Amino acid sequence: ERYGGSKTIASILISNNGLAAVKFIRSIRGFSLKNLGDERAISLVAMATPEDMRVGAEHIRMADQIVEVPGGSNNNNYANVRLIVEVAQRAHVDA
After folding, report:
1. CB-based contact 82:70 (threshold 8 Å)
2. How far out from the chain centre does Cα 59 lie?
3. Do the bridges between strand 43-48 and strand 11-14 make them parallel or antiparallel, or are there none, so unpaired?
4. pTM recorded for the entire structure
5. Which of 13, 33, 40, 70 has the greatest number of CB atoms lying within 10 Å of its CB?
6. Strands 43-48, 65-68: parallel, antiparallel or unpaired by DSSP?
7. How confident is the model at residue 7, as a pLDDT?
8. What is the 3-class SS of the chain, one letter each residue?
9. Which residues contact residue 51 at a Cβ distance below 8 angstroms, ignoring those fewer than 6 apart?
10. What percent of the chain has pLDDT over 90?
């Protein structure tokens, strides 16, 4: 309400990998600490391909939860809007 919204965002799906995902996680953690007093007040759910998991990608180590998605080209995962929406619905994230 303080920011004009009517719904609290308690969880976010990260539908990216690599440096972009890491920067996003750091940004949300900082926002949460500054504005909510707890850097983990917003739960971060990361999409992860088998390749991400095999190399221990930083974004999946930083996330609160991971959801495995198909590997291969980005059309199979991080650029697949239909898959992102399905994962968001299954994970019950707010954003």
Report:
1. no
2. 9
3. parallel
4. 0.90
5. 13
6. parallel
7. 83
8. CCCCCCCCCCEEEECCCHHHHHHHHHHHHHHHHHHHCCCCCCEEEEEECHHHHHHCCHHHHHCCEEEECCCCCHHHCCCCHHHHHHHHHHHCCCC
9. 71
10. 88
